[in-house]
Amino acid sequence: MSRNTTPQSSMEEELDSEITSIRAELRKLHHRRRILSSSLLASDKLQTRLKAHQSATKNTPTSLSITSLASDISPLADSAGKHSELNHHRVAFSATTFPFTDPSPTTENPHLLGVRIDVCTRSGRYTKPYYILLKRARTGDGGDGEQNKHFQIHRHTIPAFIAMDRLERRFLPVPSSATEAETEEQRLKPWKTRARKQDLWGLVRELRRELVAWHLRKDAVGFLREKLGVVRRGAGDYDDEGVWVRDVLADDMVETRLERNELGIIALSATTLEATYVRVEWEDGRVGRFKISNSGIVERAVILGDQGRDKAIEGILTGGDGRVETVLDRLKKTKTSPE
Amino acid sequence: MPPPKSIRAPTTASLPDDLRIASTTQSLVKALGKLPRQALLDIVFYWLEDRNVASFPPYLQRDERDKDDDDELGPYPAERTIDDVRNAYQELQMRKGAKREVIDRILEGDWRHGITMRQLAMIDFRHLDDHPSSLRWTALELSHIGATGAATSEDSTDFNATACIPRVHASTFLHKLQQQISPLVKSHYYLARSRSLPVTFLRVFVTNSPYQYPRQTSDSLVDSSRVIYVAFPDSCPFIYTSVSTSMALKPSSDTVATDPRTLQRIVRDAIPKALSLPHQRYTLKATSLTAKSLGTLLKLRGPGRSNQANGAFSIFADAVLEGSPLDPRPSDTVTPEEYLHQPSELDKENVDITNGPTPDELPKKSRGPDPDTRITKKRKLAIQSRFGTAGSLLSSAPLDRLDVRLLDSPDQLEETGAEPAQPVLSLTFAGSDVISGIRKLAELGLVDPERMPSWMTGEEAVSVAVVRGGNRVTRDSG
């Protein structure tokens, strides 16, 4: 008996793995079918044909079978058409709005205005959408019965390093209708307390700029790392060559290091999540850091070696067209050119 | 054997890394015993690595020669070279055995001359890193002093929307911290990066003031109530501090200024000052969040998306409401699970999705006849709209305690706002995950999901709240 168990269990294992692989394959196909069917339903050709057909049948109510067919398909096709239209708006305008109802029974302002911001990254994919939900709060009771409403940020999903409270103070100031009793100074110097209007456009524009700049910086750092070549550390892989670090920008906790390159750079990574500063380390012990501006320019660079600062390389980093994407090309050029 | 006697004058320097605690100290066994055998061995191998061995020298035969009067035969004869020591631990690694064996080998064998403060800090930190819920953490917010008065400057063109996140340069920061507290507190610092969380930890061990009579018992150097942890999460204007649980139990008998609690407060107060730069001073603000799990703090006061969107709004934080603009599937046909688990696979429909984590979770849900079938569809929808993904399996930020003070009068008929003698009702929820517990209650029908106030859904993301009329009241004083 004991002899039999080993081949049996191995066979079972084999079958199990086969079953799981088939299941995975099935899932994959299901997924693909759903994507394909909804793309087909949302496709331009089908939508235009369907619309033409619908308008035609509306005008001439003829055979029963065709109308029933049309009504059978139409809810699905309708929702697919609406959805693709929505997606077109999101792709085209990047910032879209939607209404949202706060389900809390105790809230005073259940009707919220949602703003959704979509950012496309280097890979051609979209990130998780960013949301702000604004509520319309009342500004005191005006006295004259007229209730001023103003926007306030209620909830949002913006990362913490973008100071939403500062943006709100700047673009959505609370209208100061309550301060009726003007002080002497305010009356004499009205420009000091000129009532700033709420500027929702400005808020969204500024916020989107910050988000896009952040993703561009992240992409730039990822691009530089990719150009140098990234090696991922596998499980139980104890090769101690090079500097293994965890990338702050990556979601996974896998340690990576750079491939050996002719520039002698052994580490290049963003120091923090917002990817403003990039840390570079060379084989010979030089360590540097440069700052990426919101427009993708290397603004400042500091490189320290054993003999103090390496001004030449600093100049190369910030010189040229200053773009962060071409930093490596600039370094390479000086490396190859005869000195 | 005790560390060699030396003359020590009071200084304002921090405790050195290589200050040795006599290996005969009883509490060391306990401190080391917190770690499992493998973790202990890992740490020992780290000490014995070529680049580290100078900081953690083991006891070798040549040390024995220096004091030849020592003729006792210990259970662990001193090894000849460092390689021999390594081999000894390799051997322990190979064979299974008790943890005690390793601890004895460390304390009575290779580090019989004492464990240094740094070694102890590493052991302690390893335990914390493996058990992130072993302490209670309080989140504090860093904010600019005078930031509110700067409203006029925000009109200017150089408006910048980045939050106040101090750039921490480890050695500079420690130097400044030391400058702040050295006249009052003698301490030892250890800075380390977590292996699993995006957090940098600072372990500060506070002993008594520098002017106290030279030597304290070596037990006090192991005392965990004198340890304060400060965690710096990446890229967000928050810091977390640990409040040692055994702190309250020890009312120190000597003067007020030297009990561990006071010393810890001094350290805490010094942190924002040490982080400050000229013209850029920081202060710490309370954020009403204390929890055992560091994961919770990272979720509710962390660098990510979910700081300001919880409870009903967690669907936005987890982006389970709608897909990317390239997803052809109408969003009402896709389950939140799919959005959460396959965020990037929508676009690469041809590529393998075999490694998606969904397979095991989804079928299980539909197979079992569990709560799903028992609760009505209406209530299920109500629960989903109230809680979003909070307290569900999809995403969790477990709160182990939720304290709520209700300021409403119980009859709720007449508005007695001006009445001074207002009844106050305090509620305390405790458990492994309070919000998911309330969600369970709602699923069982014990809580009406439509009428309950929003603090019950975790929307406020706090562990202490004052509530009036179902809404959280915030005091500006913090």
TrEMBL record, chain A:
Transmembrane segments: none annotated. It is found in: Chromosome, Centromere; Nucleus. InterPro entries: CENP-O (IPR018464). It holds the Pfam family CENP-O. One of its GO terms (cellular component) is nucleus. Keywords: Centromere, Chromosome, Nucleus. Belongs to the CENP-O/MCM21 family. This is Uncharacterized protein. It comes from Aspergillus nanangensis. The lineage of its organism: Eukaryota, Fungi, Dikarya, Ascomycota, Pezizomycotina.
Automatic annotation (TrEMBL), chain B:
It holds the Pfam family CENP-N. This is CHL4 family chromosome segregation protein. It comes from Aspergillus nanangensis. Residues 338-351, 361-375 have a biased composition (Basic and acidic residues). Residues 59-79, 324-376 are annotated as: Disordered. One of its GO terms (biological process) is chromosome segregation. Gene3D superfamilies: 3.10.20.720.
